[in-house]
Structures are given as structure tokens and as C-alpha cells.
């Protein structure tokens, strides 16, 4: 399969391949995309002069605001060519609609085929999908299409309901699952409470979506360490994706960063001034899609910030790799002189056994700076426990937010409102953002 072979080309060969595909993409959007026609005309951009990936810097970036304000101006095909409509999760604003053609769905299948192949799955595996597949969510559909192309069986259980997950595991014996990694802790909790020998179950591998289990040093973070201690036989592989780029970055068996799929996107890492950052600097993931028919994007800033690694992986692939997502640009918090992202708070809270669930709220305080409230669901609501939580925050991130106890049932309802397809743990009430 060509998509597999590309991973093993030399970096210069990968770049040459991408530049050829990039020229095709620019010609396509210049001819078909109302949005990019306007941009190229307004900025007097001659696409014939964009010959190298470095030349992309001549083109303005595309933002989430552009997608929200001119959503359907990105559409490059008639409505009769659309086979699937999906929406973004709307994490930092109103959801955006994306429209996929038949070829786009095939491309999506290739992306997740590669995810399974990278992680060491085999066509003989049975995959259990523990993520949302309805509600216009691209990720679940991508997993399904990828499994069809890969040749494995798949069980579409959907998200949540540990009892149903374990009943299915007992009956069908899946060997791998696709899930948000913190849900693995719920599976273990249920198994322990009901006498299920989970460590000797059929599940041996987890494709982790929505959260990371590793640090930039490729070691387990707090969540990953906690899962590994409880279930050392379970191999975890991180998958990073977004609806907008209509593909993913996936971790291989060496588990040292998520591999880029160079036949599906061109990726840049930019600072606040849209300049290319160095490898040892954090940058915003910025993608140009390759081979998308319905709604291709050029230099789209995802809002996700990370470090990246260019050296070849021990697995033999030469594609660049992403470190764990540090956070979303719009979610950055400046608290008492410390800059942090919600993920740093989650990592600490996930490691406190008495915390059943939680919500992080950020607001503008009376002096106009960022304040943080942690709503905690726990059976222990003593002053001693509050001090324990705050001490743990101070030891990890040097500052301690306010801690407020609420019934775990109430927090659970706030985390998963009826219209949501993802667990919401972060609420931003700030009056203005930097």
C-alpha cells in the first residue's frame, strides 16, 4: 500500500512527494473554493510560485473564525457529490460543518487503516469501538471505515456504559479497543467491583483518542502511569486527530510520538506571529490537507499546541512525529504568573483516588486576571482533603486553584449535556482572552 511505503522514504523523498501533491491542492482550491479564490485574489498570490513547502508562508493562515464565518464558502463540490456531513465539536466556538465526498470517505479510511497498522494491529484482530459514532462525529465513523479497509472485525458499542462494554468483551473477545484513555480507569473500576479478571481478558491493546498518556520524553504521564500500574498487559497507542484535517497522527509500537501521515497532510508548526518554530519550541499545529475533495484547507491553524520530533523513529519510519498536545491556544491560562493549559490540571486530578469526577472553570477575577475554580465530586469533602489537593497542585505546577465540592452526580450532568458527544471538563467564563 502506497501510504505505508511513503512512511519509509527518506525525509527528502517525503518532502518531494508532498510538494507535488501540494501543487495539486493549490490548483484545486484556486479553481473550486470560493474562500481561497478570494484569498488568493486579495493577496495577489500566484500559486505557480508556491513550489516548496517553505513557500507556503506566502499564503495567509486559515483560522477557526474563517471556518465559522464562511463555512460553506470552503465547499468545492456540488451538494449532489456529498455523502456524509459531520461537524466539529465546537470546543472554542460554534460547531462547523464539513462535507465529505465518496473519495473523502475513502481517504478517511486510509488514515485509520494506518493508525491500526502503526499500532501493531493485525487484520485478525477484533476492535471494540468505545467512542461516539453518531451525532455527526467524524472520529467514530473514521474508526469504522478504517477497520473495514484494514480487514478487522469491529464492534460498535459506543461510548460509556462499562457494564455493556464488559458484557461485549466476554461474549465476543475483542483484542483491541478504541477509547478515551481515562475511560479505561472506569472499566477497571467496574471490573474490580464485579469480580472480572480484566488483566486476563481478551483486550491487549488500546487506541487512545481525545487524551494523551505520555509526556514529551515519551514516558507515561500521570494518567498513563496509573493505567499501566493497574493494567500492565494493555499496550496503549495515542491517536491525535481533528475534524478539520480529516485525518490523524498515530503512535507506532515504539510509542514515542504520533506519526505524521505525509500523503494526507502537510504540517507546519507556527508561533503567535505565524512564524515557523524550531524543533525544541512549542508551536501550533497548522495543516494543509492533501487529496480532500469536499472542503480542503490550506494552512489551517488547529489551535492545538505541541512539540514535534524530526529524527527517524526506531520503527524505521521517517515521518515526523508530534509530542503530546499541551493544550488549545484559546484555552491557555495565565494564573498567578504561571502559564498553563487545562491538560496539566487534568493530569493531577486524575491521580487523586478520592476524586470521582471534576470540572475546571476559568473566569476573569475582580482584578481582571485569570482565576481558576476546580469543581470536585468526592465522598471526602473535608478541609484536610482540600489541603491535600492544593498541595498536590503546588508540587506539580507551583500554584493552587480554588477547590469547591459539588455532588458527583451534578458534575456528571454538567460534563455530558444532552447535545454533547464528548465529556466536557473545561468551561471558560473569561470576559476576554489574550
Summarize the SSE layout with pairings:
Layout: H1 2-7, H2 11-32, H3 34-42, H4 64-69, E1 82-87, E2 97-101, H5 102-118, E3 126-129, H6 138-150, E4 153-156, H7 162-172, E5 176-179, H8 181-193, E6 205-209, H9 222-230, E7 235-242, E8 247-251, E9 258-259, E10 265-270, E11 283-289, E12 300-306, E13 308-309, E14 321-322, E15 327-328, E16 333-335, E17 338-340, H10 342-349, E18 357-364, E19 370-377, H11 383-397, E20 402-405, H12 408-415, E21 426-429
Parallel strand pairs: 3-4, 3-5, 5-6, 6-7, 18-21, 19-20
Antiparallel strand pairs: 1-2, 7-8, 8-9, 9-14, 10-11, 11-12, 12-15, 13-14, 16-17, 18-19
Helix/strand-derived category reads: alpha/beta
The value of Rg in angstroms is 22 Å
Side by side, the strands of the main sheet go 4-3-5-6-7-8-9-14-13
Overall geometry comes to: globular
Strand content: 15-25%
- The total count of strands amounts to 21
The main sheet comes to:
9 strands, mixed
Amino acid at each position: 500500500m502506497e501510504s505505508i511505503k511513503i512512511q519509509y522514504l527518506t525525509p527528502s523523498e517525503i518532502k518531494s512527494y508532498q510538494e507535488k501533491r501540494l501543487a495539486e491542492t493549490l490548483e484545486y482550491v484556486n479553481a473550486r473554493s470560493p474562500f481561497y479564490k478570494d484569498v488568493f485574489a486579495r493577496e495577489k498570490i500566484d500559486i505557480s510560485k508556491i513550489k516548496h513547502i517553505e513557500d507556503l508562508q506566502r499564503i495567509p493562515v486559515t483560522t477557526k473564525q474563517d471556518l465559522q464565518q464562511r463555512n460553506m464558502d470552503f465547499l468545492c463540490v456540488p451538494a449532489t457529490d456529498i455523502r456524509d456531513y459531520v461537524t466539529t465539536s465546537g470546543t472554542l466556538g460554534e460547531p462547523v460543518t464539513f462535507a465529505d465526498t465518496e473519495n473523502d470517505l475513502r481517504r478517511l479510511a486510509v488514515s485509520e487503516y494506518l493508525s491500526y497498522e502503526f499500532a501493531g494491529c493485525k487484520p485478525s484482530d477484533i476492535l471494540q469501538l468505545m467512542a461516539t459514532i453518531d451525532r455527526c462525529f467524524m472520529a467514530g465513523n473514521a474508526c469504522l471505515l478504517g477497520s473495514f479497509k484494514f480487514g478487522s472485525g469491529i464492534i460498535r458499542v459506543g461510548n460509556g456504559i462499562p457494564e455493556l462494554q464488559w458484557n461485549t468483551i466476554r461474549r465476543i473477545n475483542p483484542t483491541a479497543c478504541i477509547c478515551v484513555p481515562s475511560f479505561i480507569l472506569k472499566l477497571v473500576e467496574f471490573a474490580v467491583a464485579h469480580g472480572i479478571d480484566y488483566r486476563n481478558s481478551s483486550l491487549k491493546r488500546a487506541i487512545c483518542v481525545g487524551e494523551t498518556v505520555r509526556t514529551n520524553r515519551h514516558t507515561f504521564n500521570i494518567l498513563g502511569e496509573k493505567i499501566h500500574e493497574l493494567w500492565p498487559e494493555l499496550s496503549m497507542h495515542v491517536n491525535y486527530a481533528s475534524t478539520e484535517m480529516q485525518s490523524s497522527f498515530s503512535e507506532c509500537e515504539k510509542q514515542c510520538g504520533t506519526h505524521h501521515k505525509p500523503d494526507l497532510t502537510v504540517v507546519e508548526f507556527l508561533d503567535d506571529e505565524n512564524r515557523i518554530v524550531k524543533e525544541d519550541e512549542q508551536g501550533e499545529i497548522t495543516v494543509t490537507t492533501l487529496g480532500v475533495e469536499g472542503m480542503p484547507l490550506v494552512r489551517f491553524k488547529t489551535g492545538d499546541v505541541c512539540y514535534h520530533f524530526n529524527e527517524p523513529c526506531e520503527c524505521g519510519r521517517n515521518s515526523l512525529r508530534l509530542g503530546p498536545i499541551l493544550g488549545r491556544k484559546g484555552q491557555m491560562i495565565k494564573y498567578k504568573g504561571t502559564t498553563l493549559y487545562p491538560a496539566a490540571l487534568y493530569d493531577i486530578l486524575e491521580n487523586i483516588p478520592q476524586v470521582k469526577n471534576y470540572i475546571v472553570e476559568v473566569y476573569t477575577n475582580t482584578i481582571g486576571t485569570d482565576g481558576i475554580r476546580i469543581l470536585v465530586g468526592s465522598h471526602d469533602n473535608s478541609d484536610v482533603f482540600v489541603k491535600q489537593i492544593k498541595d498536590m497542585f503546588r508540587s506539580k505546577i507551583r500554584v493552587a486553584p480554588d477547590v469547591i465540592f459539588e455532588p458527583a452526580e451534578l458534575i456528571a450532568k454538567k460534563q455530558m449535556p444532552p447535545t454533547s458527544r464528548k465529556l466536557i471538563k473545561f468551561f471558560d467564563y473569561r470576559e476576554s482572552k489574550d
